[in-house]
Amino acid sequence: MDHDWLAAAIASRRPFRFGELEVSFNGNQAAVEVPGDGGEMTDVSANPAAVREWTRLDVHGRYRPLSGARGVRRGWQVRCSPEDLPPILEAVYPLAPRHIAMAAEGRLRVEPLDAVLGRQSGRYRAARDTPPDIRKAARDVLCGICVRTPWWDGDPSGLEGAIPCPEPCSVFVSLCRDLTVLDQTPEPVDPDPAVPFATFEEPGNEIRERCLERIRRG
Ligand code: SF4
Questions:
Q1: How many CA atoms lie within 13 A of 40 on its CB side?
Q2: Which of 108, 149, 176, 186 is most open to solvent, judged by the fewest CB atoms within 10 Å of its CB?
Q3: Is the CB of residue 22 less than 8 Å from the CB of residue 88?
């Protein structure tokens, strides 16, 4: 990433997508929107704490432990000044504006998966032994539904509009751990949206079942 595309877009008042958010400008006012089904949009206060609270739950009403996970609730908007955009965006995707700026300056420290798994301890110690097929399934399935791009996996792609992810997150580590401690790879079952997003030990968890399917397929 050779320039801070986010700062440049805000400075030039150019519309852009930020994960699942659509940002547009009208004169000296900015709008952050997640379109809904065409009905009335809910106005959310231009206050980072209010935006954080509003996006705590996903479209199914479940808590969102992975901030980059696609599936934020729909049909809402925030109006603010262009200068106030970074903290609003950061409220939905923590650290994302900072990571873009650091990547542009060549200061984003990238930590590979081996290093992150290798320092796990306590309950997560088993993640150190995560086999390659589970690592790959976790990378494909979990990172596949995340708005961030896993630079830690040697994928510094998608310059314009990308949100770089510098190291495997705690949800990723937890998924590796929970799949690694399984005795055998069980048969996948139908995903159940009522199972919480990151309860990977529980059959029916959508991410778990998609990973099991991939691992069994080989
Ligand atoms: S490790 Fe993957 S799932 Fe976690 S924040 Fe990074 S890109 Fe998203």
A1: 3
A2: 186
A3: no
User: Does the predicted TM-score (pTM) go above 0.90?
Assistant: yes
> Does ligand 1 come within 6 angstroms of the Cβ of 143?
yes
Q: Is the distance from the beta carbon of residue 198 to the nearest atom of ligand 1 less than 6 Å?
A: no
Q: Domain residues of the chain, as ranges?
A: 5-104, 113-217
Return d(Cα 167, Cα 183) in angstroms, integer: 28
Q: Is the CB of 146 under 6 A from ligand 1?
A: yes
pLDDT 10s digits, 19-51: 999 999 998 999 999 999 888 999 999 999 999
Atom of ligand 1 nearest to the CA of 168: 1
User: In degrees rounded to 5, what are phi and psi of residue 51?
Assistant: -70, -40
Q: Enumerate residues 6+ apart whose C-beta is below 8 A from 101.
A: 4, 6, 7
Question: Is the CATH code 1.20.1260.10 the one for domain 113-217?
Answer: no
